[in-house]
Amino acid sequence: MSKAKIAWITDSTATLSKSFIEKHHIYVIPLHVVINDEFYKETIDISDQEFYERMKTEEGKFQSSQPSINDFVELYKKLKEDYDFGIAIHASSVLTGTYQSSVMAANMEDFKLYAIDSQIGSYPLSHLIKKGIELVGQGLDAEEVVSELNALRSETRLYLVPSNLDQLHKSGRVSGGQKILASLFNIKPILSIEAGAAQIKEKVRTDKKAIAWLASKLREDLETKTVEKVAIVHANDLNKAAVMEENINENFPGIETEIMMLIPVAGVHTGVGTIGLSWVCE
Prior knowledge:
With 282 residues, the protein is an alpha/beta fold. The chain has eleven helices and 13 strands. Helix content is 44%, strand content 26%. The chain is globular and about 55 Å long. The mean pLDDT is 91.
């Protein structure tokens, strides 16, 4: 019996390198960022850096939008010619309808698809994809891979610290009163993506305290679990990211670190200067 030919599908919220995408023939459907009602395909029509630079200097509305279902229909129409089935891992279905569109399009095209709602995005989503490819390489079948990845979802961590509440206020995530109070007292909320949704876990007054709180969460996980790599995410503030990386390297010398840009569809809500920490427990 010949080995099944599997297509891997994800969306642009997965922070995968271009070389990894090409090497493993991963099909990436982009989400959109919307600047003053003009749509841009994330990573294609606009780079992350360009998006954040415009957000910092331009007035107006910055929003995000999921891909069109037609993007998936066209993709699955092509894939069913060359592949036996697909494994799709998408950003949290609570935060975007991308997962639902992907599943619907596969049904419309009668393309066999194993779809996983990662319940997250950014670095943890890329980790799930890499883990899935690794498991297939080890000889696991699609059902076993899906089961393993679904179990791993509860071990993903993504914490974000917005530099201010301007964007959260504009996108309707906090009220005007909360924003005024936060700016008066210089309060920074620490957001966590859990069970697919963003929750405020803590409120601190300085970046230093935010970093200390994030480090304490990593330390808690390390008491009972293994973490091989930590991603420092930033919304176009490399200096802030470097300070955090230095802190992690100092306190957790055995852990690999990587600095990466926060995906714009998340930055739309948290704003320029957001800093964050992410890891997956094994």
